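User: Hello! I'm new to structural biology and keep hearing that structure can be predicted from sequence alone. Could you demonstrate with Protein senC? Please show me the input and the output so I can see what each looks like.

Assistant: Of course. The first part below is the input, the amino acid sequence of Protein senC. The second part is the output, the predicted structure written as tokens.
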Amino acid sequence: MTRIYAIVAAVAIILLTAGVWVFTAMGRNDDVFAQCRSSAVAGGTGQIGGPFTLVDETGATVTDKDVIDEPSLIYFGYTYCPDVCPYDMARNAEAVTMLEEQGYSVKPVFISIDPERDTPEQLADFTDYLHPRLVGLTGSAEQIKAASQAYRTYYKKQEPEDGDEDYYLVDHSTFTYLTLPEEGFVEYFRRDETPEAMAEKVACFLDAR
């Protein structure tokens, strides 16, 4: 009798272990982008992204639905940024061009965090120089704050050192966000990501849809 109990117990353990393995495997398969991800977000990717209303380079009011109508790489910065923003956006533009050469259409997006100076006209000059498809967005201080909060970004205007109110720097986070029309935010890229690596990862996400 003891032997029978032992056999039954062993079979139960095997079945339980198999069930846990299957459940875990099924959970992993729920994420169709699992093989593409190289970053993690506390609470899941649903914590980043969301609706926004801003103003484009023509002065027209647009929403996130208007802007993210195709895969998009979104960056928050400002046109008067002396070094970081131009470098990061040039990297993003290069990645978009590489993707275009591979047959992928990805929209580069630049959202200003400096509404006092970044007018639609200022943005148009900045974006036209970097890439013909780069979309520049600005808006009121409240609109920009709402967009920034949706994407969990940080920015803070610094007091001008020489007292000239027209010349100041803005501290800000420097992530680039890959956002898809149906899925929303799916991945972010750090500053040290090369355009080649970025293009490769974006292509992985687009192929996995």
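User: So the tokens describe the shape?

Assistant: Right, they're a compact way of writing down the 3D structure. Reading them back into a model, for example: The two ends are 55 Å apart (CA to CA).
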